[in-house]
Design brief:
Blueprint lengths: L1 H15 L23 E5 L2 E8 L6 H9 L4 E2 L5 H7 L6 E6 L7 E3 L4 E2 L20 E7 L2 E6 L5 E6 L2
Parallel strand pairs: 4-9
Antiparallel strand pairs: 1-2, 2-9, 3-9, 4-5, 4-7, 5-6, 7-8
The structure holds calcium ion (2 copies).
Amino acid sequence: MFSSILVLILYATVIGGQAPPIDTFDPAHDQCGTGFFSDFKIEKEGDVVMCLRWSSWPNTFAGAKKYCLIRGTRLGVFNTWDKMKILQRQNNVTFVGLDDLQTEGKFIWHNGEQLENPRSSGFFNLNEPSNSEGVEDCVVLQGRLLNDVPCTMSYLFVCELEL
Ligand SMILES: [Ca+2]
Ligand SMILES: [Ca+2]
């Protein structure tokens, strides 16, 4: 009995005295400065532009979206060329916060903004988005630009802490 209480106290002391591990990330404890969220921080003229975390394991689009959301973040929104350049530093195929799940052909960034004229926007690879076989509603970085892919595929993903 005593030993189990002792273990509990020790456990509470150790856990309480440390920064929470990555899986319990709490943005309230991080300003995207020296904290553990900011795997990647972009500053411009002293201002933080983006706070990102790149996953090191693949997930489906829904799984990735949920992973980001329950940590107070969202799938990364790269709706400007400055931000696309940040995304382009990634070499792996990576889910981003853009989909046409609600209305076919209407691509919405996860900040609510629509990506107008996706095919001629310059954001997508040539002949993309293709909606191949009618099932491509989620978007990845593939190479230097975007591609729509099936949401049930598993890819790496990137979470963004909203500033
Ligand atoms: Ca589609
Ligand atoms: Ca496609």
